[in-house]
Amino acid sequence: MGSTGNGFAGDRAATISGGTVVDKDVDFANYFCTYGFLYHQKEMLCDRVRMDSYYNAVFDNKHHFDGKTVLDVGTGSGILAIWAGQAGARKVYAVEATKMSEHARELVKANNLQDVVEVIEGSIEDVTLPEKVDVIISEWMGYFLLRESMFDSVICARDRWLKPTGVMYPSNARMWLAPMRSRLADQKMSDHEGAMGDWFCFLDETKTNYGVDMSVLTKPFSEEQKKYYLQTSLWNNLHPNQVVGTAAIIKEIDCLTVTVNDILNVRASISSSISAEETRLCGFAGWFDVHFRGSKENPAQQEIELTTAPSEDYSTHWGQQVFLLHPPISVSKGDDLNINFSMDRSKQNHRLMEVELSCEIKQTSGKLLLPFRNKFYIE
Amino acid sequence: MGSTGNGFAGDRAATISGGTVVDKDVDFANYFCTYGFLYHQKEMLCDRVRMDSYYNAVFDNKHHFDGKTVLDVGTGSGILAIWAGQAGARKVYAVEATKMSEHARELVKANNLQDVVEVIEGSIEDVTLPEKVDVIISEWMGYFLLRESMFDSVICARDRWLKPTGVMYPSNARMWLAPMRSRLADQKMSDHEGAMGDWFCFLDETKTNYGVDMSVLTKPFSEEQKKYYLQTSLWNNLHPNQVVGTAAIIKEIDCLTVTVNDILNVRASISSSISAEETRLCGFAGWFDVHFRGSKENPAQQEIELTTAPSEDYSTHWGQQVFLLHPPISVSKGDDLNINFSMDRSKQNHRLMEVELSCEIKQTSGKLLLPFRNKFYIE
């Protein structure tokens, strides 16, 4: 919530993100501000899957930390930096852009690590460290991995501050896509119909009571509602039963070598085979996993996986991102899907995404259904 | 959601609001953007009390509009400008800061008023009109009247563009405060207790499972939760039965003469007498009314009132703003309340408010209860 208090309108600093100039105060108003709340930090700290995987990644691989230097990008409450310190790091630089850094500093002190962990308030793009580091650790993953585009900052940190022999925590990341079923499809279509029905009553009443014909707004209103109800991906925690076909990898990232350019766009052509007997293809689910493997030269002793795939036993605060089809399509076991997936950053906000998903269905009979192509927004 | 596309970080324009420099893009990200959605405009257009009062104010006072020039500040969908045109205005300038102006332009055309109503996209602080106007009409009221601080823009418009003989629509505005009762008080106290109880479990688990002592964050977390659950004013639609004492005016505004300085702060000392037999004082309700009276020299033929007071028959999208006490206080009919109310703009965001409310209760027995003073945030 960012009115500025100074009088120098011309001093507004900006960062460059994948070619787009981003106003820092606008970025704060749109994005960073939620991370300044302890309630939000707590939500992430209560995610057992997230916490367990990073905890185990660190403490099962102390050789990567003991006596080493570490950089925690976006330290938030300071938890990863503290673990790195507890695992024996010589020095940990914990960088945080929001005022949460003040709480991180308190937490470090309360856990007797003030001589090891140095909390620095600022953007990783701007801060200067006294030395390069052996490890960069960061929990940067947004919904469907790349939402929030925080990994840009981690790449920047790596290019500036990681020693040639250094390791990334996590070391790898993948995005997955699978066909799914969900009642949300019917629900959203129904909500949309309701909103449009309501609109036509409104047109009527406005003409009758107030003498103004608003029908020229029907088209833009309809587009706005369609985007909101039908084209915006949803957060959901799917049961594995809802995944109705084989999942496929649509993006693989080596955190040591990837560039910002590599992650500006996602382009994938994948195949999926329906595994459920007879069901409705209601859309697609997207999720991610990351791995802690160290590097080739300096591998982990214990490889750890953090996955956000639909699971009976586990759920994470990331859930999955759901892209719904309207209307759903009847499919049977053995039907083959050829899917083209593309994802780009929104021009208005580099931290949000636009998706195009086209799909061709070949039924077991051999019949080819008409392909469809849908646009989605990850907001 | 505003990343800027240009490369000139130094060109960021800013407006000055009551002494504070406001970054325009941040203001857009925080405030203006919601008004760019047709869904939001529709919500306001469906508010029958709002629509009826402005409609009647215009059409029952055609003498103010017929053959005259009009300025609509923040035209949104264009509704007020269209009515002014239909009431016979010679020319209407309809200014709108968001892309909603494009829809307003379409609406004007679809209602055959393109020769009368000129829609101008831009901030009223920046635009240049070809002439001064006879009437400024605007629906600028936020929750509890002044939230959003849009009236600053109307005052600016008036000082730049209203003829000395001109009239303001509305002409007057008042803020009201009254003691009230509501189950929300218990509910919020309960939610707060739940959040704090949950916190202590979290502290325990984090120490046990992850070896980190987070107790140093209890105080800031508690303050954050207290602010969120107990100190943030709530939107509510109160039934008149819930108003338990006499209401009093805490601010009066003459829209023709008021300055921005006059509305930066609200300071009032009021009295209220409990009217309910025996009840709990759960807090205070704030609302507003506006009147369409024209000016002394050029009065309305039909004075119209738009009130957002608690009502059995009517409700508006503004509801009332509720400031809750924790815990509620037992009061009886005839008890007298002396209330000091002060409201100032938030330093972080000039469109949001901070309130201090202190209250002394003199019971009918003559006994004086300890005064209390509470801080609230209108977010």
- How many angstroms separate the termini of chain A? 19 Å
Structural domain tally of chain A: 2
The residue ranges of chain A in which pLDDT falls below 50 over 5 or more consecutive positions are: 1-12
Order of helix and strand elements from N to C terminus of chain A: EEHHHEHEHEEHEEHHEEHEEEEEEE
Look at the structure and give the mean pLDDT of chain A: 94
Strand content of chain A: 25-35%
CATH homologous superfamily (4th level) name of the largest domain in chain A? Hnrnp arginine n-methyltransferase1
CATH architectural group of the largest domain in chain A: Distorted Sandwich
Structural Rg of chain A: 23 Å
What fraction, in percent, of the residue positions of chain A are helical?
25-40%
The profile of the biggest β sheet of chain A is: 6 strands, antiparallel
Total E-strand runs of chain A: 17
Q: Please give the oligomerization state of what you see.
A: homodimer
Remind me, CATH topology of the largest domain in chain A?
Hnrnp arginine n-methyltransferase1
Count of alpha/pi helices of chain A = 9
General form of chain A: globular
CATH C-level label of the largest domain in chain A: Mainly Beta
Organism (chains A, B): Actinidia rufa
Subunit structure (chains A, B): Ring-like homodimer.
Enzyme class (chains A, B): transferase
Protein name (chains A, B): Protein arginine N-methyltransferase PRMT10
